[in-house]
Amino acid sequence: MSRIAAKFAALRQEGRGALVTYLQAFDPDRETYRAILHGLPAAGADVIEVGVPFTDPMADGPSIQKAGQRALKAGATAAGVLDLVRSLRTLDDTTPVVLMGYYNPILTYGVEAFCKDAATAGADGLIIVDVPPEEADEVEPHATANGLDLIRLIAPTTDEARLPKVLAATTGFIYYVAITGITGTRSADYASMAPTIANLKRHTDLPVAIGFGIRSPAQAAEAAQAADGAVVGTALVDTLAASLDSEGRAGPDTVKNVLGQVSGLAQAVRAARKVAA
Amino acid sequence: MNKPLPNSLRQGPDGRGRFGEFGGRFVAETLMPLILEVEAAYEASKKDAAFQAEWRRLLTHYVGRPSPLWYAERLTTHLRKKAAPGKGAKVYFKRDELNHTGAHKINAVLGQILLAKKMGKTRIIAETGAGQHGVATATACALMDLPCVVYMGATDVERQQPNVFRMKLLGAQIVPVTSGAATLKDAMNEGLRDWVANVHDTYYCIGTVAGPHPYPAMVRDFQSVIGTEARAQMLEAEGRLPDVLVAAVGGGSNAMGLFYPFLDDKDVAMVGVEAAGRGLDTHEHAAALSRGRPGVLHGNRTYLLQDGDGQITEAHSISAGLDYPGVGPEHSWLHEIGRVQYVGATDDEALEAFQLCSRQEGIIPALEPAHALAHVIKAAPEMPADSIMLMNLCGRGDKDIFTVAKHLGENI
Membrane spanning segments where (chain A) (predicted)? Predict the structure, then answer.
């Protein structure tokens, strides 16, 4: 069983949802990010999304755009990101790692080589924001051959007619986008999403994580309860950004503040037990 | 028995929006349903006689089409002075700078805004570089009573002040974009972000033959009015087709518009002129085809300026309209199959052409077609005197006089 499937199965046994965290690799620099990454499992991250920086993140809001600029300035490359994943795997062999980014850096690396190297480094899945199912045929065979899940976003705009097509192209888990919009701009009423998620689940057995706009422990708990997990990204990136000096360099509290926030989110998610079905 | 397909270069894109391997629909899931909706609406509009008639009516009575075909006789004579005996092609201009709003952009904007109305969209967004597409979109929105938001790089807002003010007068809201180099690429990112957030009521009016399918095909189809007219006008004026077509290429809409109706005319050569900025062998140019390699950005696979890690690099050109690190996917395909030759013209060459055209023909061109003209100046004297070059003079230079004055050290 893949790490992703095993993790969601274990959490189902526990009767709770997953906390999925997103930060961008190399933000604000490689070693600070490495310290955060290594600390995430103990802080309570159940699934770790590692952002692969790109100059033109079209689906991301200002916070994550700036994170990408810091990361690229710090020398981020796809190979460098995979090295960080490899270093996490010397310490942790159970927490799933999902690489999230845009297609062009992967295309440049070589899709086949990237999938192979990502799997070897210990990654478990890919979210390639700008590769919809219609364009997935050049990625899917290589991801599958290397045991990488292709996690897909399902948006409020994904209608019933389109849903089966997207679901059929998804493995690992489904990332339900709670708002129509870019990351970190607006929040939704996550507690009210249970019917939407239930409807989604009529079409799939995959776990569903809700993301976009989740900032507070309470929101994370609501989302994790309404679905199988809550994704928190921009709120963590903002905490990281607030700890930097005026030059964008890590401050003394950068690692501590980010991991502290993850702990707070994790506690709330863990306390939000699911009502037995 | 299946009828064999005619051997045509005008059948693209395929069902996936591809021209060869280029094009496609590389967008986030949130946009995907809307892209499909735009495609369906566009396909329907092609067969909708009322839609086509309304677009044609606007082109005739609002834009002022057909634009004239002008034999640039003084320029031709001037260039022959430098040519060897028996050399020096006849130079013609397709004068799309005479369109209402001063450039070819309005052709595709009117088509798209009519489409948006038909789709029931009530808000229009656009990106702009030089401001010509922004002005055209703001104009169409004023005419059709739709709110209009234009994303424009802060750098371009600075260097294209006259167009910024024009857009304001037309009632558009201009949003300066400060991310990246604050030019066209960043404006397009911001346009796509707005669209993702406002899919329910908003139509994104893209200004060039790039972006996700169906935009490259749709904008090309609307702009093809340029080439279709030029072809008929040339047959009437000269009784034959031109030997060479020349057009500037940023995203490539004016070039596709001119080239497309001629693609199957084997004896008509075509040259696309990219902005070579400070030189093709410097890092400051916008020549995606000459110096880039294929990648994926803004919804399509195409030639891009990028570094060894697949990060997009900044383009440079004196012309804000050519200052883009990508190019339309159909151009990438035409480049790979060798149907169109892509060359560069530098900032300095464009400036020189800008001035020459003003003095020889009494036409102040935009800096974008000044790049095309720079190639005409180089190539026409090498061609036989009985050959014909047709250049798309796709925009007028009013918007550029401040930029040009600055480069010439004039204070206005």
Answer: none
